[in-house]
Amino acid sequence: MLGRKQEINLQINQILDSCLIALAFWLCHSIRYYNQEWFEAVELAGVVGAAGGNIPPLGDFFWLMAIIVPFTPVILEMNGYYDHVLQKTIWRSLRQMGRALLIVGVIIGGCVVFFKWGAQSRVVLALLVPVGGGFLLAKEAIVRRVIRSRVSADRWCEQVLFAGGPGEMERLADQFDRAGESSIRAVEMINLATRPVGDLVDALHEHSVERVIFAAGHVHFDKVQEAVSACEAEGVEAWLSTDFIETSIARPNMDVLGGRLMMVFRSAPEVSWALLLKGLIDRVGAFLLILLTSPLWVIAYIGIKRSSPGPAFFRQRRGGKNGRPFVMFKFRTMGIDAEERKKELEKENEMSGPVFKVEKDPRVFKFGDFLRRRSIDELPQLLNVLFGQMSLVGPRPLPTDEVARIENTSQRRRLSMKPGLTCLWQVSGRNTITNFDEWVELDLKYIDNWSIWLDIKILFLTIPAVLLRRGAK
């Protein structure tokens, strides 16, 4: 795992394990609490000493839960339980859990002896060991299977570029392999000593990577500076195992990859809990909006079918995060020959740069114009948000052919964040903005100042923009 991502994954694992342990505690208490007569019979049979009798409700076990639930994952981490999940065996997990159980037992015993806190039921604690341990092992097995399936399907590995001097890149890649760094795969190695930086930029576009790893200890400093500046302009993270590099936009930071300290230059938001929360809000929000707007979907579908021959939905390849293509969905508002007629209207394009916009587009049929003016045609993009290809808020995705025509490489930094359903451009004039440079400026302003609160603000500003049809065409 990558340093920051590894930290977040560890915290998620610990939270999940705490929840599983709490669930196991409740289950064990319920087994003992609602089976009083059975345990009394067991005691009379001499099988379990002092097992019978009534036990207090779950609330009286609070002090035990306050120790066991939050501290067990922390102690498991101290014993290396969350390290090298793919390489672990079940016996190693059991040994680590055994050591953690011993430490937790000592803590509980110390509380009983020194603070005179009573362990209300030894049976609950005895049941908790196999039940809680079974839950943790089952979760670990599921996580291991999911990771392996994603790795085998090439969905888990992040594609990265290596850049630097000959021999140095290979040695660094080998170090990551030995460290079990299965989450990255080198798609290309660029020798900066013999190849121009333009080859690196072309490779970024070809492979749609979001990270370049530099191993450039023996490459001329100016060449490395030029390569990092290219990554900075593209909105691609540059990870260096070298000395300091001056940047004008990217924020330098230290991170760990494969156990090796590196300096990272980011000109886009880094992985954080806020970004994870953004993703959660996207999925939940898209699902709720699809339910709330479902009557409009029906109206749009019937209206399109009655107004124009052809499919109700329009599918188009757009440039996603880092330019990675995806199929975006919209309600069709033009005739089925719209793409063929686009060349005829090139001279009427009202947008500067690579973007194509025409105010009174003759390809739009009457009901399609109704859908556009009320932004109903955009609703199917909620499916893209639900699938994780788009966000509720983010730079608007451009068709892949328009992405390829972006000549100013610094403008490609707008691709460094997941594209969105709405953005600053949508709420700052929308189609009244005809200058592509101004559009990009708004997108970069959003990226450089991104926060959850900015997303919420844009979402609230989008509502009146849509209802009042400001800038809609």
What would you note in describing this structure?
The chain is an alpha/beta fold. Mean pLDDT is 84; it is low at 44-52. It has three domains: 3-152, no CATH class; 158-266, 3-Layer(aba) Sandwich (Rossmann fold); 273-467, no CATH class. It has 17 helices and ten strands.
Overall SS class? alpha/beta
| Low-confidence blocks of residues | 44-52
The total beta strand count reads 10
Name the overall outline: globular
Number of helices, where a helix is a run of at least 4 consecutive DSSP H or I residues: 17
Largest sheet: 6 strands, mixed
Arithmetic mean of pLDDT? 84
Kindly estimate the percentage of residues that lie in beta strands according to DSSP. 5-15%
Q: Could you give the topology of this structure?
A:
Layout: H1 3-33, H2 36-44, H3 62-78, H4 90-114, H5 122-152, E1 158-164, H6 168-178, E2 184-191, H7 197-207, E3 211-215, H8 221-234, E4 237-240, E5 251-257, E6 260-266, H9 273-292, H10 294-307, E7 313-319, E8 325-331, H11 338-341, H12 366-373, H13 381-386, E9 391-393, H14 400-404, E10 420-422, H15 424-427, H16 436-448, H17 452-467
Parallel strand pairs: 1-2, 1-3, 3-4, 9-10
Antiparallel strand pairs: 4-6, 5-6, 7-8
